[in-house]
């Protein structure tokens, strides 16, 4: 190979490798919701409610509700009922988190009291 061919070949290899690094790899190239449920869903019938923001793999906001019977359904994020359901769900979840924190705090205090009472009393020696 001629001396002038080596830099050209190295330049081509460099450009190819640079191009390969810039290609994003997407495992899931589609939206999760194919069909959207237009019916109103009661918050009492929910186990979980998840919201997925737009991403490179899906350009729209998706809301997936998991019902007590195990079914999953996609909700229209633009409907006022769904927006209200999301707000109610977020309040409910935040209240549960606060209750769990309160229980942990109470449990810690209770454990501290038990530990203090288990300590043997020591006599002062002077």
Strand element count: 3
Summarize the amount of helix as a percent range.
40-55%
Look at the structure and give the CATH class of the domain at 28-114.
Answer: Mainly Beta
What is the overall pLDDT average? 76
CATH topology category name of the domain at 28-114: OB fold (Dihydrolipoamide Acetyltransferase, E2P)
Largest beta sheet: strand ordering: 1-2-3
**Strand portion:** 5-15%
Taking all Cα atoms into account, the compactness measure Rg is 29 Å
Low-confidence segments, ≥5 residues, pLDDT <50? none
CATH architecture of the domain at 28-114: Beta Barrel
Order of helices and strands: HEEEH
Globular, elongated, flat, extended or rod-shaped: what is the shape? elongated
Helix/strand-derived class? alpha+beta
- State the separation between the terminal residues, measured CA to CA: 97 Å
Sheet with the most strands, sense and barrel status: 3 strands, antiparallel
Please, how many helices? 2
